[in-house]
Protein backbone atom coordinates (compact mmCIF):
# COMPACT_ATOMS: atom_id res chain seq x y z
CA UNK A 1 0.00 0.00 0.00
CA UNK A 2 1.30 3.39 -0.92
CA UNK A 3 0.82 6.19 1.56
CA UNK A 4 1.48 9.72 0.42
CA UNK A 5 -0.47 11.87 2.85
CA UNK A 6 1.04 13.10 6.07
CA UNK A 7 -0.26 15.11 8.95
CA UNK A 8 1.91 16.98 11.46
CA UNK A 9 0.74 14.85 14.38
CA UNK A 10 1.62 11.54 12.85
CA UNK A 11 3.89 9.16 14.70
CA UNK A 12 7.54 9.62 13.88
CA UNK A 13 7.86 5.90 13.24
CA UNK A 14 5.25 5.84 10.48
CA UNK A 15 6.09 3.66 7.50
CA UNK A 16 6.32 4.93 3.94
CA UNK A 17 6.89 3.38 0.52
CA UNK A 18 9.89 4.46 -1.55
CA UNK A 19 8.36 5.54 -4.88
CA UNK A 20 11.36 4.08 -6.74
CA UNK A 21 12.07 0.64 -5.25
CA UNK A 22 8.69 0.21 -3.50
CA UNK A 23 10.29 -0.87 -0.21
CA UNK A 24 8.15 -0.04 2.82
CA UNK A 25 10.37 1.44 5.51
CA UNK A 26 10.41 3.82 8.44
CA UNK A 27 9.89 7.27 6.99
CA UNK A 28 12.95 8.60 8.82
CA UNK A 29 15.08 6.62 6.36
CA UNK A 30 13.49 8.35 3.34
CA UNK A 31 13.42 11.92 2.05
CA UNK A 32 10.21 13.64 1.13
CA UNK A 33 9.69 15.09 -2.34
CA UNK A 34 7.17 17.78 -3.11
CA UNK A 35 6.12 19.92 -6.06
CA UNK A 36 7.96 23.19 -5.48
CA UNK A 37 6.43 26.63 -6.13
CA UNK A 38 8.23 26.69 -9.50
CA UNK A 39 6.73 23.32 -10.47
CA UNK A 40 10.01 21.43 -10.00
CA UNK A 41 10.03 18.19 -8.02
CA UNK A 42 12.28 18.99 -5.06
CA UNK A 43 13.24 17.79 -1.59
CA UNK A 44 10.83 19.18 0.98
CA UNK A 45 12.79 21.71 3.02
CA UNK A 46 10.28 21.46 5.88
CA UNK A 47 9.26 17.80 6.10
CA UNK A 48 7.27 18.34 9.27
CA UNK A 49 4.61 20.27 7.39
CA UNK A 50 1.57 18.42 6.13
CA UNK A 51 0.32 18.12 2.58
CA UNK A 52 1.05 15.69 -0.20
CA UNK A 53 4.53 14.24 -0.44
CA UNK A 54 6.35 11.45 -2.25
CA UNK A 55 8.99 9.50 -0.37
CA UNK A 56 12.23 8.17 -1.78
CA UNK A 57 15.42 6.59 -0.45
CA UNK A 58 18.22 9.18 -0.20
CA UNK A 59 20.35 7.23 -2.68
CA UNK A 60 21.38 8.17 -6.19
CA UNK A 61 19.87 4.98 -7.59
CA UNK A 62 16.39 5.47 -6.08
CA UNK A 63 16.37 9.21 -6.90
CA UNK A 64 17.41 8.52 -10.52
CA UNK A 65 14.87 5.71 -10.87
CA UNK A 66 12.11 7.93 -9.50
CA UNK A 67 13.06 10.71 -11.94
CA UNK A 68 13.17 8.38 -14.94
CA UNK A 69 9.85 6.72 -14.14
CA UNK A 70 8.10 9.92 -13.04
CA UNK A 71 7.25 8.04 -9.87
CA UNK A 72 7.17 11.14 -7.66
CA UNK A 73 4.69 12.91 -9.94
CA UNK A 74 2.46 9.84 -9.98
CA UNK A 75 2.53 9.69 -6.21
CA UNK A 76 1.90 13.44 -5.98
CA UNK A 77 -0.90 13.13 -8.58
CA UNK A 78 0.63 15.84 -10.78
CA UNK A 79 1.57 15.86 -14.48
CA UNK A 80 4.84 14.10 -15.44
CA UNK A 81 7.66 16.58 -16.09
CA UNK A 82 11.43 16.68 -16.54
CA UNK A 83 12.82 15.83 -13.10
CA UNK A 84 16.36 16.94 -12.28
CA UNK A 85 17.75 13.97 -10.35
CA UNK A 86 21.09 15.74 -9.85
CA UNK A 87 19.40 18.72 -8.24
CA UNK A 88 17.41 16.41 -5.94
CA UNK A 89 20.59 14.55 -4.95
CA UNK A 90 22.26 17.89 -4.17
CA UNK A 91 19.26 19.05 -2.12
CA UNK A 92 19.15 15.78 -0.16
CA UNK A 93 22.91 15.99 0.44
CA UNK A 94 22.58 19.55 1.72
CA UNK A 95 19.69 18.55 3.99
CA UNK A 96 21.90 15.86 5.60
CA UNK A 97 24.77 18.33 5.95
CA UNK A 98 22.39 20.77 7.63
CA UNK A 99 21.12 18.04 9.94
CA UNK A 100 24.68 17.00 10.88
CA UNK A 101 25.65 20.62 11.59
CA UNK A 102 22.54 21.02 13.74
CA UNK A 103 23.33 17.88 15.76
CA UNK A 104 26.94 19.00 16.22
CA UNK A 105 26.12 22.51 17.33
CA UNK A 106 23.48 21.37 19.81
CA UNK A 107 25.89 18.74 21.19
CA UNK A 108 28.48 21.51 21.50
CA UNK A 109 26.04 23.76 23.35
CA UNK A 110 25.25 20.95 25.81
CA UNK A 111 28.99 20.30 26.31
CA UNK A 112 28.88 16.83 24.79
CA UNK A 113 31.80 17.50 22.46
CA UNK A 114 35.55 17.43 23.01
CA UNK A 115 37.32 19.80 20.60
CA UNK A 116 40.96 19.52 19.54
CA UNK A 117 43.49 16.67 19.69
CA UNK A 118 44.31 16.83 23.41
CA UNK A 119 40.67 16.90 24.48
CA UNK A 120 39.77 14.11 22.04
CA UNK A 121 42.65 11.91 23.25
CA UNK A 122 41.57 12.46 26.86
CA UNK A 123 37.93 11.82 26.07
CA UNK A 124 38.84 8.64 24.21
CA UNK A 125 41.11 7.26 26.94
CA UNK A 126 38.42 8.05 29.56
CA UNK A 127 36.01 5.88 27.59
CA UNK A 128 33.65 8.82 27.04
CA UNK A 129 34.02 9.17 23.26
CA UNK A 130 31.35 7.56 21.08
CA UNK A 131 32.31 9.19 17.78
CA UNK A 132 35.54 10.79 16.60
CA UNK A 133 35.09 13.32 13.83
CA UNK A 134 37.93 14.50 11.62
CA UNK A 135 37.70 17.38 9.18
CA UNK A 136 37.72 16.32 5.52
CA UNK A 137 40.81 18.51 5.03
CA UNK A 138 42.62 17.35 8.17
CA UNK A 139 46.31 16.54 7.79
CA UNK A 140 47.74 13.03 7.61
CA UNK A 141 48.98 13.14 11.22
CA UNK A 142 45.54 14.06 12.53
CA UNK A 143 43.94 11.33 10.44
CA UNK A 144 46.27 8.62 11.62
CA UNK A 145 45.98 9.70 15.28
CA UNK A 146 42.20 9.73 14.90
CA UNK A 147 42.37 6.22 13.50
CA UNK A 148 44.42 5.00 16.46
CA UNK A 149 42.04 6.67 18.96
CA UNK A 150 38.89 5.25 17.37
CA UNK A 151 39.14 1.81 18.89
CA UNK A 152 36.49 -0.58 20.19
CA UNK A 153 33.00 0.86 19.90
CA UNK A 154 34.20 4.36 18.96
CA UNK A 155 33.09 5.33 15.44
CA UNK A 156 35.24 7.43 13.13
CA UNK A 157 33.87 9.70 10.42
CA UNK A 158 35.09 12.60 8.27
CA UNK A 159 32.79 15.59 7.95
CA UNK A 160 33.18 19.26 7.00
CA UNK A 161 36.26 21.40 6.59
CA UNK A 162 38.47 22.56 9.47
CA UNK A 163 37.01 26.01 8.98
CA UNK A 164 33.40 24.76 9.00
CA UNK A 165 33.96 22.70 12.17
CA UNK A 166 35.70 25.73 13.71
CA UNK A 167 32.63 27.85 12.99
CA UNK A 168 30.39 25.27 14.71
CA UNK A 169 32.62 25.09 17.78
CA UNK A 170 33.56 28.78 18.12
CA UNK A 171 37.19 28.31 17.08
CA UNK A 172 39.23 29.42 14.10
CA UNK A 173 39.76 25.92 12.74
CA UNK A 174 39.02 22.48 14.16
CA UNK A 175 40.58 19.33 12.66
CA UNK A 176 39.28 16.80 15.18
CA UNK A 177 36.48 16.50 17.72
CA UNK A 178 34.80 13.73 19.70
CA UNK A 179 31.10 13.34 20.47
CA UNK A 180 30.25 11.74 23.80
CA UNK A 181 26.51 11.18 23.79
CA UNK A 182 25.90 7.72 22.20
CA UNK A 183 22.44 8.49 20.80
CA UNK A 184 23.58 11.73 19.16
CA UNK A 185 26.66 9.92 17.87
CA UNK A 186 24.58 7.17 16.30
CA UNK A 187 22.35 9.72 14.58
CA UNK A 188 25.40 11.65 13.37
CA UNK A 189 26.98 8.52 11.92
CA UNK A 190 23.76 7.72 10.05
CA UNK A 191 23.38 11.31 8.81
CA UNK A 192 27.04 11.64 7.74
CA UNK A 193 26.90 8.27 5.94
CA UNK A 194 23.82 9.37 4.00
CA UNK A 195 25.50 12.68 3.23
CA UNK A 196 28.67 10.93 2.04
CA UNK A 197 26.65 8.41 -0.01
CA UNK A 198 25.29 11.27 -2.15
CA UNK A 199 28.67 12.75 -3.00
CA UNK A 200 29.35 14.12 -6.50
ZN1 LIG B 1 14.16 3.04 -2.69
| Secondary-structure-derived class | alpha+beta
What is the number of E strands?
11
Sheet with the most strands?
A: 4 strands, mixed
Domain count: 2
- Please report the first level of CATH classification, the CATH class of the largest domain: Alpha Beta
CATH superfamily of the largest domain: Ribosomal protein L30/S12
How far from one another are the termini? 33 Å
Describe the 3D structure.
The chain has 200 residues and is of the alpha+beta class. It has 2 domains: 5-83, Hypothetical Cytosolic Protein, Chain: A (2-Layer Sandwich); 96-197, 60s Ribosomal Protein L30, Chain: A, CATH 3.30.1330. The chain has helices spanning 60-69, 71-76, 85-109, 117-125, 140-149, 162-168, 182-197, and strands at 5-6, 15-17, 24-26, 31-35, 41-43, 51-52, 54-56, 113-115, 131-134, 155-158, 176-179. It has a 4-stranded mixed sheet with strand order 8-11-9-10, with helices on both faces. It has a 3-stranded antiparallel sheet with strand order 5-4-7. It starts with a strand and ends with a helix. Zinc ion is lined by residues 18, 20-21, 23, 57, 62.
Notable traits:
2 domains, 11 strands, Hypothetical Cytosolic Protein, Chain: A, elongated, four-stranded mixed sheet, 60s Ribosomal Protein L30, Chain: A, 200 residues, 42% helix, 7 helices, binds zinc ion, three-stranded antiparallel sheet, alpha+beta
Amino acid sequence: MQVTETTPNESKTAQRTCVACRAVVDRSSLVRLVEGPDGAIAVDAKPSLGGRGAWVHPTKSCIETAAKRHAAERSLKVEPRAVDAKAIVAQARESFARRARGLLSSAFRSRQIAVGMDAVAQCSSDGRAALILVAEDAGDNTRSRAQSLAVGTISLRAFGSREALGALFNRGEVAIAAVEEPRVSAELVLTIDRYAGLEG
